[in-house]
Queue: 2 jobs
Job 1
Amino acid sequence: MADSSFDIVSKVERQEVDNALNQASKEISQRYDFKGTNASISWSGEKILMQASGEERVKAILDIFQSKLVKRGISLKALDTGEPQLSGKEHKLFASIKEGISQENAKKVAKIIRDEGPKGVKAQVQGDELRVTSKSRDDLQTVIALLKQQDFDFALQFVNYR
């Protein structure tokens, strides 16, 4: 019997982020507490730009955006936000979406699989993803359950389970 495998990736669907951003923008334009504050959220190249007249307003925009991301099933670990910065009379906050597993994070995950996972399970780093193989599908299910219990500082998805 051939080996079974799955890939561990850290990817975010751009369309879902776009939808969350549009929903947040619509809510900001309709909310009474944002009237007259020049509050907005939009794409600025590959980053997301949030701006308003006060630091608390920018943080409120971020909170709205995060709630929309969660409703769309996107982990907040994939969102990398900076600190609000004063630019003229406006406060600006940039956020970016983190994708891909770095080499050091992939090695951490592989080490956990090696140390705590069932015997006979192999993990290989392939670029910005990790391939896990085993002869037993039950062992692969055990590895997925093990990794879901861990608290990483990056989002994980399990794809290509075969």
Job 2
Amino acid sequence: MLRILCLVLAFALAGCSRLDLADFDQATPRLELEQYFDGRLKAYGQFQDRFGQVKRRFVVDIDGQWDGSTLTLNEDFVYDDGERETRVWTLQRTADGGWEGRAGGVVGTATGRGAGNAFNWQYDFDLATDDGTLRLHFNDWLFLQEDGVLLNRAYVSKFGINVGEVLISFFRQPTEAAARTP
């Protein structure tokens, strides 16, 4: 019994993120969500279980629009098994400088804060499965790199126990006007 308890505790601790947003305060380039996500993006990602086994890959086409108060992200997913999914996020700044967001499947409101080149989202998500719905917690970290590449690592847990990670790379797409410029 003690051996099982130690194993469960080890998995729970392995799922805890030790990242601190304050550590990125001076990191550049600065990530401003409303600027980065205003326009067209393409993202490539995968879900890995807690043992590192890739379980599912996907590509996402994103159309983002910032209207001065709300950032709307229309996301069209295509998974490696051919399944398609659309998710629409609406995000707004909070009075304290953070962000809150809503999307289909998100339970309540996602909350997030940024510093320097990093941004951290926290939210619960109801994932539809063949057996019903599975509620998962996401601790989502985004890091802006040079040349506009945005890396995303989401730690996924259930009851505080790590069940896997989502890894995504975002790339801004050229606007139609920029593509026509010689």
